[in-house]
């Protein structure tokens, strides 16, 4: 019988020969795939006749390993265009070798440049319970959560070298009575939240059925197959020798699986678990929704840094987690639990922080980056963006996304003022474009971009009416849309609440304010159409440019900011029409206030008709005297 080293060398030789022959475009000799469903006709039939994922997610059990029988395997079918499953773990065939080659190169570079600190961090998040590891995404609420949920961990540091044996998370001996690893104890002040996390990560959320179905090896098992640096040498069989190698973090060498056939790489189970837990927390604590999503992406990336998983593994884990979280949250059996978890979290954090539903968001974002690594939204966006696709390149031009059934539930607590149909539009208009092979599987769950969706619509493809109610509290009373909104449709703002637009918007259908407050927080916040204020207040931060006409009438208010030595606060390309009841409220800029005796431009237009009923100024020492012309309005500031 050959030695273990000999067997390993033979297996390595077979993988080199097989994969390099495939990469070269030759006819590779492979066993008949164990998963017959990967045959194109069967796969097409499965996709055509399949039930929606949210209705079929409980088919994800080990006994089901084909796209016809397993909903998770089916939605991950985009990977079947990249990889053809073989009869054994090491006999699969690259169908898109350029993708898998880039995948291995990325992993090799990442592990080769990994610092000792990053290796230790990767160990912690490999061994720590995934539900516990995402709690840090709660920022200023994280320690409060751990205390209230009695959530603990025994994995708080990493050794310098390789531990002697397996290391697993457990309740520390000195932990308070009733403590639990993961999301915490059900018998705690946040027990409903902990139970929701565990339910979302329930018995039908395992990555194992898909691992067995695809049989795609982990990157460290394919070191001999990656192609990064050609040494110019050839092995005994005439194949090139490469210097590329995926280097597993030393702390994790003895934590690896020992049976290749039962330890596949795609999809990443850790990634799946991380995103599932993060989305459950985001549902219960939507005040940190975007930060929890960012945390999940960051933790998932440590799977690549550790050398334990590849980019395609991590992408697959995120895709399945997005669908599974939606399925669990949309399941009627969990309706009472998810509502109770949200109510419990809100009541607990309000009581512990002395806030209300309207002020909890501010408290949850009150820390700086020195203590809250997710305090900078722009930095979060930079963290997430490249990890949405990793090494995948876009091919061709695809159709707009048809949002999978039930996906809108993921935004249910983050955007409670929108209807289910509107949340689906948010997901559709913020989705990744088609053409990324692994993300274009059945129902295209991989195209959903929850980080972007948390910032509202990406486009108004038809007219949008949004109603926020001041009495609803929280996001129901006030929200901000930060995306750059395009489209031919327009926006109508209703309700007593406040909506803020911050993007460089390009929608053409115009803007109507009927009630409450609409805040224009950027010069192009209101797109490229007409603006009509027929009720409520339009508040402008700094400067606003209106590309069409501006009409204000009835019991309405326009709030503008005036600054020293600055141009008009409102620039209108066409006509301004002011009607009875309209009020102009001026705010002095705190940093550069204009002084008494100066005349400050306020509105500039091609033509101005009508007048405000009154002009107000937020000053005890100055008064504003309006000066109207045919093409604008200025105010002369006088001492009272």
From TrEMBL:
Domain Phosphatidic acid phosphatase type 2/haloperoxidase: 190-329
Keyword Signal found: yes
Keyword flag Disulfide bond: no
Cleaved signal peptide residues: 1-36
Keywords of this entry: Signal
Source organism, top-level taxon: Bacteria
Designated name of the protein: Phosphoesterase
